[in-house]
Amino acid sequence: xxxxxxxxxxxxxxxxxxxxxxxxxxxxxxxxxxxxxxxxxxxxxxxxxxxxxxxxxxxxxxxxxxxxxxxxxxxxxxxxxxxxxxxxxxxxxxxxxxxxxxxxxxxxxxxxxxxxxxxxxxxxxxxxxxxxxxxx
Length: 136
Known about the structure:
CATH superfamily of the largest domain: Rieske [2Fe-2S] iron-sulphur domain
CATH class of the largest domain: Mainly Beta
Structural class: alpha+beta
Distance between the termini: 51 Å
């Protein structure tokens, strides 16, 4: 094998490894690896105190959880599909927003506008007393 052929094979192998990594990172649930989501939040914990106030939100375990002005909890993946920037929550219009490039998403994670091609993954929430469960 001569040098040119070796470098060509090395380039093809590197491209294949990169493609596999990229495809895994872009899995359907936005977290990579296809893992399911199921965790609880203690609303009495100071770490999650923002969720006691309507319009508040927190980011935990790759998910943004918000308490809407109408009094419901919503949860979606926290990383913008455009470039992976963490999104925030705008309570005034009940939307998630990526301030890096102005992508907007509905309360269910659907893409509204901006450079993001897809929406955010939506997760279910269930409140029992002061324990909020987030799951897929």
